[in-house]
Design brief:
This protein is α+β, with helices and mostly antiparallel strands. The protein has helices spanning about 5-25, 50-65, 110-120, 195-200; strands at about 30, 40-45, 70-75, 75-80, 85-90, 95, 100, 125-135, 140-145, 155-160, 165-170, 175-185, 190, 200-205, 215-220. The protein is globular.
Length: about 220
């Protein structure tokens, strides 16, 4: 096995070992930094315990204003392979990949999640993008959250509820430099530093996944 492959295998094994322990004890267990260079990604498994994760997942499935966005693909308009929603402070509208999003007002369950995320990160977020992956056919392609409205070195916090999905990173200058982590029910991820400028991330499709997952990515929007 080449040295780079051995390192990657060891890292994935280590992350899986963390996850198994977190599941066993149902308490937070963290990875200090998933990335080897040019950024920082902290992962906390069981950030929300199972009871709270189950409750919040059910509430988000039924109480969020989900919509089906469309995107241009080789000149044709196609459905985005997931449902989305955008919530935040007054006038916190957002656009990415040609998609315009008007902010819905914060709901009680979103404010509950936001408060816990802000306490952990020490950051006050202005808005949140929710993605609903209905099954393994839903995904998000390689991208960086580096829009101008987020400014330099944006801090983005993410929480996952529902089915486990693999979260992958690859360096923009070396696509062989890859890191991945399984995002389980109740997992927290904090991305900061140069991460959004130097690393792309995505959620790949998976035939093995048959149930839903909701991700919430909290951001800070700056007025132009």
């Amino acid at each position: 096995m080449p040295p780079a492959c051995g390192i990657l295998f060891s890292l994935v094994f280590l992350v899986n070992e963390y996850t198994e322990q977190a599941s066993l004890f149902n308490s937070p267990y963290s990875v200090a930094n998933l990335l080897p260079i040019d950024g920082e990604v902290q992962v906390i498994f069981s950030f929300f315990n199972k009871a709270d994760s189950d409750r919040l997942l059910n509430s988000l499935l039924h109480n969020i204003n989900w919509k089906q966005d469309k995107m241009k693909f080789y000149g044709k308009e196609v459905n985005l392979p997931r449902l989305t929603a955008w919530y935040g402070d007054h006038n916190a509208d957002y656009s990415y990949s040609g998609i315009e999003m008007k902010a819905n007002p914060w709901t009680p369950e979103l404010l509950e999640i936001k408060e816990k995320v802000e306490t952990q990160s020490g950051i006050r977020f202005t808005s949140v993008l929710l993605n609903r992956y209905r099954n393994g056919n839903d995904s998000v392609s390689w991208h960086r959250d580096s829009e101008k409205v987020l400014r330099v070195n944006p801090v983005i916090a993410s929480v996952s509820f529902g089915a486990t999905r693999i979260f992958k990173f690859r360096h923009v200058n070396d696509h062989k430099l890859v890191r991945e982590v399984p995002l389980h029910h109740g997992t927290f991820v904090l991305m900061k530093g140069e991460t959004q400028h130097k690393w792309e991330h995505h959620i790949p499709k998976s035939k093995a996944v048959t149930s839903e997952r909701i991700s919430l990515t909290f951001r800070i929007l700056f007025n132009p």
